[in-house]
Design goal:
Blueprint: H1 23-33, E1 40-44, H2 50-58, E2 61-66, H3 69-81, E3 88-92, H4 95-99, E4 107-110, H5 117-127, E5 133-138, H6 141-153, E6 159-163, E7 166-171, E8 174-179, E9 183-189
Parallel strand pairs: 1-2, 1-4, 2-3, 4-5
Antiparallel strand pairs: 5-9, 6-9, 7-8
The chain binds S-adenosyl-L-homocysteine.
Length: 191
Amino acid sequence: MYFEITPDEDFIKTDGVPGPTKHEIRALVISKTCLTDEDVVVDVGCGTGGLTLEFAKRAKKVYSIDINPDAIQTTRANLEKFGVANKVELIEEEGLQALDHIEDFTKLMIGGSGGNLQNIIEAGYLKLPVGGRIIITSIVLETATESVEMLKALGANPEVVTLNVSKGTVLDRGVMMKALNPITIVSARKE
Ligand code: SAH
């Protein structure tokens, strides 16, 4: 079954809630997640629900966590808009605390951690089964380097990719390219 990546402009947005993660970034995150319809995904820091929506289309179940009630409401609105709300449990809580009571997930996405990154990676990685995957997206370099250090300390072999995407606007006089902010994706398989 083929699922498209939802266009950025189709999401319901709320002032003060970040996301959605841009279309091209979502496509690569889906690929790094190696998602199947048997997967149970945890999305820490779901924001607008950009990644949660892509996971919900393809996985068996998704737990989406955000500390910001507006993010939970916005994610809910987007899941309802696209008809996949039944696959997702929304949890308004800090990520590390929420991970304490979620069991049996196979893929872990961290898109927001608010100063708790290393603890969230450690707690989440330890709960993944062997062969599970962890993915961290970062707009700040330190998030990526801290993730790499933590994953190495846990015995994983992290992969690091920075996406520098430029999108074209087709004008009468030609195609004008505009750069998006670079995003770094750190990912690893649970060993
Ligand atoms: N991937 C999302 C955007 C994520 S923005 C999308 O595609 O729409 C990052 C989110 O992480 C924000 O909504 C923020 O409230 C949340 N966040 C930051 N620190 C957090 C923490 N410790 N626990 C839970 N959520 C957190």
